[in-house]
Amino acid sequence: MECFTFKAADKYLGIEARHIHRVVDEATITPVPLLPLCHLGLLYVRGELFDVIDIGHLLGQEKGSKPSADRENYRAILLKWSQGKLALVPDEIIGITWIEDNNGEEGVYFQEGYKIQVITPEHIWEMLSGFSYGYRKI
Questions:
Q1: Which end of the chain is least crowded, N or C, by CB within 10 Å?
Q2: What does R_g of the chain's alpha carbons equal in angstroms?
Q3: What is the 3-state secondary structure (H, E, C) of the chain?
Q4: How far apart are CA 120 and CA 113, in angstroms?
Q5: Distance from C-alpha of 37 to C-alpha of 35, rounded to nearest angstrom
Q6: Cα 15 to chain center, whole Å?
Q7: What pLDDT, in 10s, does the model give residues 3-56?
């Protein structure tokens, strides 16, 4: 399986490459009030609107740390799948990795000396749906 690999919250994560629409550099994110800290706003790219998620904060990165999109030279990974669209801002992009060996753990692979947890866009969406909207904890 081809997997797009990136780093967030000190973890190596992967998403099947078929869900990756494109990667954009330093795009303008429009903030939206009253959303959780991990939801950075909206991104309009080539006629399409994406919710922008700081994946590190979503996965529990330290609350006081600076959002990934506040750094210089951040990149957003645009995901598209049958039920939706998201843009993820990781700490670092690793690239495309070919994964073959599961080593017994479902969704966890060992490749090139590091452990990659494969996540799906649906799983990210489920994590987001667990937040209470209408307030923003800082």
A1: C
A2: 15
A3: CEEEEEEECCEEEEEEHHHEEEEEECCCCECCCCCCCCEEEEEEECCEEEEEEEHHHHCCCCCCCCCHHHCCCCEEEEEEECCEEEEEECCEEEEEEECCCCCCCCCEEEECCEEEEECCHHHHHHHHHCCCCCCCCC
A4: 22
A5: 7
A6: 9
A7: 999 999 889 999 999 999 999 987 889 988 888 888 899 999 989 999 999 999
Which amino acid belongs to residue 97? T
> What are 64's two structure tokens?
């006081």
The CATH number assigned to the domain with range 2-129 reads 2.40.50.180
